[in-house]
Amino acid sequence: MDTVPGELAGKVALVTGAARGLGAEVVRRMVVAGARVTAADRRVEDGTAIAVAAGARFFELDVTDAEQWRAAVDSAAGTGDGGKLDILVNNAGIIRVAPILQCEPAEFRKVVETNLVGTFLGIRAAAPLMAAGGGGSIINLCSPGGFEGTVGMPAYTSSKWGIRGLTRTAALELADSGIRVNTVVPGPMRTAMTRRRGWDDEDYARHYGATVPLRRMAEFGEVADLVIWLASDRASYCTGGDYAADGGLGAGKPAVVPPDQM
Ligand SMILES: NC(=O)c1ccc[n+]([C@@H]2O[C@H](COP(=O)([O-])OP(=O)(O)OC[C@H]3O[C@@H](n4cnc5c(N)ncnc54)[C@H](O)[C@@H]3O)[C@@H](O)[C@H]2O)c1
């Protein structure tokens, strides 16, 4: 799918977790769509390189820090010059793989602090400015793990369930300010998050691709364009919802035996 040039013309956007993976692709495609984009991440070197190559700006941000959030929003919006913010993408996230009995409380807290509290802080920092400008769109990255239990990922799964509750609550509270709040639910993508030591293409196909009804992992662009659509005025009546680009995972498991052979 190709991004529609000009779809976000005149809009100002802040994207977190933008130094690599999905966030970097969202930045690239938002610039093509005509937005003025600030790419934020705690990885300064990678984030700066992505931003410069895309034609965006970079801002160093740890999403767990409320003070840094205020500065990031001010910088993205150009508040000093009476600026504005139209789009916030809460994409930064981390994962820790350990079953509950082996998961250290500090690790559990760190994942929830980054994924869920980080998203909460972003909404708190951005919403007043968006409201002052007449509205905006906030997109929070969820996961298929936000709809079911996931063995070995107690903290990540809990954080993504929490993001859905937070998204609905924010959608209700901010509707009168013209701010739409939604989640995007990606299927598995090949990023640092899904990387496992020693895996080759076949391992990815077996462990991720084969678990998806469409029988493959997602391309970044297939998910990034859904983020951009939700950010655009074409999604003007959409708020409080979950929007999936998950290859059918939300519908259930892929067929074990082809339907015509049952
Ligand atoms: N990769 C997948 O298969 C997959 C599937 C479903 C959902 N998601 C979600 O999509 C989003 C992006 O995932 P990805 O696979 O591109 O991940 P990634 O690990 O490639 O990138 C995540 C980015 O977030 C940044 N980050 C982490 N903690 C941060 C913090 N405290 N402050 C600022 N930045 C921070 C990292 O530096 C990194 O650049 C995440 O929310 C993830 O949960 C990913």
SSE inventory with pairings:
Elements: E1 12-16, H1 21-32, E2 36-41, H2 44-54, E3 57-60, H3 66-77, E4 87-90, H4 105-132, E5 136-141, H5 154-174, E6 179-186, H6 201-207, H7 220-231, E7 242-245
Structure commentary:
The protein is α/β, with parallel strands linked by helices and 262 residues long. The protein has one domain: Rossmann fold, CATH 3.40.50. It is built from seven helices and seven strands. The protein has helices spanning 21-32, 44-54, 66-77, 105-132, 154-174, 201-207, 220-231; strands at residues 12-16, 36-41, 57-60, 87-90, 136-141, 179-186, 242-245. The protein has a seven-stranded parallel sheet, with helices on both faces. β4 (87-90), α4 (105-132) and β5 (136-141) form a beta-alpha-beta unit. α3 (66-77) packs parallel to α4 (105-132). The protein is globular, with a radius of gyration of 18 Å. The two termini are 34 Å apart. The protein binds nicotinamide-adenine-dinucleotide. Nicotinamide-adenine-dinucleotide is lined by residues 16-17, 19-23, 41-43, 61-64, 91-94, 114, 118, 141, 143, 186, 188-189, 191-194.
Features:
single chain; 262 residues; alpha/beta; Rossmann fold; 7 helices; binds nicotinamide-adenine-dinucleotide
